[in-house]
Amino acid sequence: MRAVTFAAPWDLRTVSVPDPVVLAPTDVIVRVEAAAICGSDLHVYRGVERGLDAGTVLGHEFTGTVVSAGYAVVRARPGTRVAAPFTVNCGRCWACRRGLTARCVESQVFGWVQQGCGLHGGQAELVRVPHADATLVPIDESIPPELALLAGDVFSTGLHAVEQGGVQPGDAVAILGLGPVGQCAVLAAVAAGARVVYAIDRVAHRLEQAQRHGATPVELEADVLATIRHGTEGRGVDVVIEAVGYPDATQLAWQIVRPGGTISAPGVHNEPAFALTPGQLYDKNLTYRAGRAPARAYLERSLALLNREGWRLEGLFSHHLSLAEAPRGYEIFNERRENCTKVLLRME
Ligand SMILES: NC(=O)c1ccc[n+]([C@@H]2O[C@H](COP(=O)([O-])OP(=O)(O)OC[C@H]3O[C@@H](n4cnc5c(N)ncnc54)[C@H](O)[C@@H]3O)[C@@H](O)[C@H]2O)c1
Ligand SMILES: [Zn+2]
Ligand SMILES: [Zn+2]
To answer: Percentage helix, strand, coil, to 5, in the chain?
Structure first.
């Protein structure tokens, strides 16, 4: 099959690799209909997140149809069209039963193979899915692949970030980073009844997009602090959602959150030390919540919400490319060129 593989930072290649096969009775193989590139893939592309084996098939956002299944698979039988969260989960362990599916004892992220262990990804014609019945969600033919892809990661992540932040009706919220995760968080914060949602980034077309979703755009290079102080009686916002993943964003979040407020951080961080000091948290009585979104626990709800409200995200997939064009897709998504907000990879 053809697949997008990691060779080294800044060097991804679409090549032929062996087809995946069912290894365990609960595995299935999915024929991928469409895959997407996530901001998390960029950490690997940039060499900021290290450890991935050369030759790993990338990608954790995909949708498609089951083509073969182990004997223990009951729901995700061949012929079933499915949406997939970006991690695998067993559905039975302590974490799964509490909806913390991203921390399942059997959890693996698609597209992460390190020292020979792990799971290849979905930016490929075929992908192996362990614990298929618990991980995959059967979907109707009428659901566009775009919605299934969003529900599997960035939309569920944005929704989770807002809930993790405890956004209440009437709150002032700031979203740092207006990539796909930030855009979805804007929608979720508006839907949660936020009085004002400041959307902060430096990329003009992303600021405009957030404004269309009901946010107040604030350029990173403008006086963010003054704008937020002005709109919050000098206090700062109730909740900051940090959807960036770099320490300067954590520091800005600290500057703009009110005393007693919450920073909810879906952003994936790779720096060796936390960007804030214990004293900074203490001095503002802050709650800081972070982590991988339990996308599986949100998937059905996200699909239902997207079915109703998904039209608002129309245009988020700014680029539809072939698998062969994926390396260029990474390049333009990373550099935010050609007004790129998200890349969909369709199979030939
Ligand atoms: N927690 C999870 O489960 C989960 C899931 C998906 C993605 N993520 C992470 O969420 C983050 C965002 O993902 P994405 O796909 O939207 O990525 P993206 O790279 O498309 O978006 C990041 C945005 O942040 C902006 N930015 C950079 N520095 C900034 C700063 N200091 N202040 C404000 N904005 C700044 C960039 O201009 C860009 O628009 C990434 O770190 C990604 O790894 C986490
Ligand atoms: Zn992701
Ligand atoms: Zn589990």
So the answer is: 35, 30, 40
- In angstroms, the CA 218 to CA 5 distance is 37
| Residue 63 CB-density burial (10 A; 0-12 exposed, 13-18 middle, 19+ buried) | buried
Residue by residue, DSSP assigns 122-150 as: SSBSEEEESSHHHH-EE--TTS-HHHHHH
pTM equals 0.97
Q: Which ligand is nearest to the CA of 88?
A: 3
Whether 335 shows a pLDDT value over 90: the answer reads: yes
- For ligand 1, which residues put their CB under 6 angstroms from it? 38-40, 42-43, 153-154, 157, 176-182, 200-203, 206, 220, 243-246, 248-249, 252, 266-268, 292-293
Domains in the chain: ranges and CATH: 2-153+294-346 (3.90.180.10), 157-290 (3.40.50.720)
List of residues 6+ apart from 61 with CB closer than 8 A: 35, 36, 37, 38, 86, 122, 149, 152, 153, 154
User: Tens of pLDDT along 103-125?
Assistant: 999 999 999 999 999 999 999 99
Q: Please count the CA atoms within 13 angstroms of the CA of 18 that sit on its side-chain side.
A: 3
